[in-house]
Amino acid sequence: MNLTDEESDLIFSMMRDLSGDFDHFEVRQRVGQSLLELLDADHFASYVWDGDSNRFVSGVQINMSDDNLARYEDYYQFRDPITPTLQKRRKATAVSDVMSHDRLVKTEFFNDFLKQDGLCFGINYFAYDRGSNIGDMRIWRGDKKEDFSERDTLIVNAIGPSFVNALIRAQKYDSDAPALRFASIGDRVQLTARESEIADLLVVGASDDEICAKLLISKSTLRSHITSIFQKTGLSRRTQLAQFLTDNSGFSGA
Questions:
Q1: How confident is the model at residue 252 (pLDDT cuts 50, 70, 90)?
Q2: For residues 1 and 207, what is the distance between their CA atoms, to the nearest angstrom?
Q3: For the chain, which domains are there?
Q4: Average pLDDT over residues 121-130
Q5: pLDDT tens-digit map of 140-152
Q6: 134 sits in which H/E element
Q7: 184: nearest Cα among 52, 77, 61, 93
Q8: Which of 21, 24, 39, 224 has CA atoms 20 to 30 A from the CA of 176?
Q9: What is the rounded distance in angstroms from the CA atom of residue 43 to the CA atom of residue 122?
Q10: Segment holding 241, helix H or strand E
Q11: Which residues contact 103 (CB under 8 A, 6 or more apart)?
Q12: For 84, phi and psi rounded to 5 degrees?
């Protein structure tokens, strides 16, 4: 595969990033920014599969709205006609290879979710470690551009092994965080997936700037999420979250 000088520079830069010591958010955010430029794409999202809850969690997004992604996390991922098939493939795959674009545009998933942020043509890559799906890359173009080509899938596949290794290293970074996580009990206390992510970041002492950078959200959006977290948990201070997590980690939702 022949690469332009610009493409080669972007790939080498991406490989340097993927060899660094970053957490899961940073790995996916960095590779997403580079892939948008490399593939002339417009939107990026990435999730981690949680086998216990049978859902995608820990979302990272670029050029997608928080409100729309919240609808995906709470509703549309369970009515997604393409991702379950793409998830079974351990190589980069264009969405149109599993469902024709003509069929996709007739679905609720396209019209009420994808189209809301301008997503039209997609390509996905799912990373696996010993049989477990540990993260993914979802790259999309708008309707003013062409669908992804076989060359595009080859480029993503070439990057794939380094992405997998970066996520495996990130697991060590993430293991330094407390074993108790709001991500595990969020449903029990009626937190959304995004609220659980923010609560976990608050527990480990992340600043507002750090959380906004990791999740690619504005401070006003962050404040709204924190207000909702406090309302649902009955707390009034961030310093109370760790104790709340300890107190509630063992209760049953039954």
A1: very low
A2: 43
A3: 5-172 (3.30.450.80), 182-246 (1.10.10.10)
A4: 95
A5: 999 999 999 999 9
A6: strand 132-141
A7: 52
A8: 224
A9: 9
A10: helix 241-248
A11: none
A12: -55, -40
Can you read off the two tokens belonging to residue 69?
């992604």
> Are the beta carbons of 125 and 45 closer than 8 angstroms?
no
Whole-angstrom Cα distance, residue 101 to residue 40? 19
**Structure tokens given for 199:** 């609560």
Judging by beta carbons within 10 Å of its beta carbon (0-12, 13-18, 19+), is residue 39 exposed, middle or buried?
buried
Beta bridge partners of 127: 135
What count of residues does the chain have?
Answer: 254
- Please state, in angstroms and rounded to a whole number, the distance separating the CA atoms of residues 134 and 164: 8
Q: Does residue 120 sit in helix, strand or coil? A: coil
Position of tokens 């923010």?
Answer: 198
Task: Of 153, 144, 138, give the one whose Cα is nearest residue 87.
Answer: 138
